[in-house]
């Protein structure tokens, strides 16, 4: 019997309530195959994810990214779009949600029988080392990670090292992105960068100093790299923000290392791989 956790988006809109009920009905019809716990996104905790055979996330991409840091590398995740844009222009695009209410029953069977496509998505992670020697690992980021001055009106000042690069910079902050995540924030900053490729997406990540012209190819400011990026803060107070959620603050002199050392995310799809979807 599979141990399943269903996490859903709770906002009291009719379309999401109807999708939730439909998914519950499918799950309830298989009492001999699965044991299910159901949690609202706002109420879920890290302990809820431990030891699960499958995590089902019902909502949109924001629902998945908001709770994905709780999911380890051994637990498969199935995204179900509760309000597809194909049915309503106001709905969710659901890039990571390869399933919807109409396909859920069939896709669930594929997931439980081991016939789904398993996408092992690399995740960014930052390690903050304080001047007193304490080390803090941030939550992993499946899309993007920001390092910046906590006072957005003030410049971000830091010393950056990556491979042969060793330079002091002043910018509006650094944005790091996975290959798939560049469809979110990164491309809004560097629309014409054309950096990176799918073949190296499991080992490389994107990084850009914000407010830099996208035509610039200087790797001190914008790069597709497999080497860790290390910065030493010259800001009174800065922060690291993975996937736009929790903030990790640091002070002047702290060292922050960013790379793809975060645990991978096992995201299930049922018709195409995530790389194929991104290339469409």
Describe this structure in words.
- The chain is mostly beta strands and 280 residues long.
- It folds into 2 domains: 2-115, Probable inorganic polyphosphate/atp-NAD kinase, domain 1 (Rossmann fold), CATH 3.40.50; 123-262, Tumour Suppressor Smad4.
- The chain has 5 helices and 17 strands.
- Strand 6 (117-129) and strand 7 form a beta hairpin.
Secondary-structure topology with pairs:
Layout: E1 2-8, H1 14-28, E2 34-40, E3 54-59, H2 61-67, E4 76-81, E5 99-100, H3 104-113, E6 117-129, E7 135-137, E8 144-149, E9 156-162, E10 165-171, E11 174-177, H4 186-189, E12 205-209, E13 222-225, E14 229-233, E15 237-242, E16 248-251, E17 255-269, H5 274-278
Parallel strand pairs: 1-2, 1-3, 3-4, 4-5, 4-17
Antiparallel strand pairs: 6-7, 6-17, 8-11, 8-15, 9-10, 9-14, 11-12, 12-13, 14-17, 15-16
CATH topology of the largest domain: Tumour Suppressor Smad4
- The CATH architecture classification of the largest domain is Sandwich
**Roughly how many Å apart are the termini?**
37 Å
Instruction: Please mark out the parts with pLDDT under 50 across 5 or more consecutive residues, or reply none.
Output: none
Q: Report the average pLDDT across residues.
A: 90
Shape: elongated
**Tally the helices: what do you get?**
5
Number of strand elements = 17
Largest sheet: 11 strands, mixed
Q: Specify the CATH class of the largest domain.
A: Mainly Beta
Short note summarizing the structure:
With 280 residues, the protein is mainly β. Helices cover 15% and strands 38% of the residues.
Q: What keywords describe this structure?
A:
Rossmann fold, 38% strand, single chain, 2 domains, mainly beta, Tumour Suppressor Smad4, 280 residues, six-stranded antiparallel sheet
